[in-house]
């Protein structure tokens, strides 16, 4: 099929018939993403999940969004939460990413690894950067929910203590560092 024919099929709506979920996932497998852990407590105990869909969308007001899969065990609780804490992970914190990506475990079993903010949300002690915010909008999108969060509070490390970022790419965890700078 030529490029022109493919574009015509897209214009006619045939593109939807051609694309499987597996092909869509394969395309994004080659798109690296930062790794975060999102935590909340809607009133019946802490929940959390690993997310590679966190992006900043506005500085004024400060807004971020993340995608919440309907298949996540944390989805029902996060659907009831009014606030969340988004922890941006460094490469030395891959164990947190793995813990919060593992189904069927108590992600908060280690009481020494987390505490509560004065506002009640669970916060991970090792996370170098976290942002606490109020959920301002939810939008159903396929089998996920896009969650918009207005950031109310931020903790960041001192510049000299900022770790290399943790990145997820092609089903593996990676470290970005000075060696990865191209320009």
UniProtKB/TrEMBL annotation:
Gene3D superfamilies named among the record's database cross-references: Electron Transport, Fmn-binding Protein, Chain A
Domain of life, source organism: Bacteria
Domain Flavin reductase like: 28-175
Keyword Oxidoreductase: yes
GO terms for biological process, alphabetical: pyrimidine nucleobase catabolic process
SMART domains (UniProt xref): Flavin_Reduct
Keywords: Oxidoreductase
Molecular function as annotated in GO: FMN binding; riboflavin reductase (NADPH) activity
The protein, known as: NADH-FMN oxidoreductase RutF, flavin reductase (DIM6/NTAB) family
Organism expressing this protein natively: Crystallibacter crystallopoietes
């Amino acid at each position: 099929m030529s490029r022109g024919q493919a574009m015509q099929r897209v214009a006619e709506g045939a593109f939807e018939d051609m694309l499987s979920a597996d092909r869509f996932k394969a395309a994004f497998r080659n798109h690296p993403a930062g790794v975060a852990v999102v935590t909340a407590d809607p009133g019946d105990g802490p929940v959390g999940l690993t997310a590679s869909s966190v992006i900043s969308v506005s500085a004024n007001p400060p807004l971020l969004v993340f995608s919440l899969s309907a298949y996540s065990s944390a989805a029902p609780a996060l659907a009831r939460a009014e606030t969340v804490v988004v922890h941006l992970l460094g490469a030395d914190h891959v164990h947190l990413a793995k813990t919060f990506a593992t189904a069927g475990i108590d992600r908060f079993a280690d009481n020494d690894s987390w505490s509560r903010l004065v506002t009640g949300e669970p916060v991970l002690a090792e996370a170098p950067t976290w942002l606490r915010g109020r959920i301002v909008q939810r939008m159903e999108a396929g089998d996920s929910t896009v969650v918009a969060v207005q950031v109310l509070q931020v903790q960041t490390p001192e510049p000299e203590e900022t770790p290399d970022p943790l990145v997820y790419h092609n089903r593996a965890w990676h470290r970005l560092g000075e060696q990865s700078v191209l320009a």
